[in-house]
Fold this protein.
Amino acid sequence: MVGAVACRDPHFGVWGGPPGPTREPPTTRAATKLAYAPRGGVKLASIVREDVPELGLTTMQPEESPKQRAMWALLLGPGPLIGFLGTGAVAALLLSQRRRRV
């Protein structure tokens, strides 16, 4: 239960914007004349990120060109592999130092 109401003139069950003497009209408007909106400009499969088998919908992801694959290989290069091997080497070194102390 909530504490006592401190307002002199409470209006229970009335919901709206912030309190105050001036209320501005709402800036939202209902969509109208939707029947005349252009249709068919977007293929749903081109904007979904993963397949939706319940609807029989598969994504339309373009295949990577060899140029794109080369760009990714150039961007990533051997860096992640070297980082992984370096981390493993440091971990092995720390473990070997720990064993020597015991």
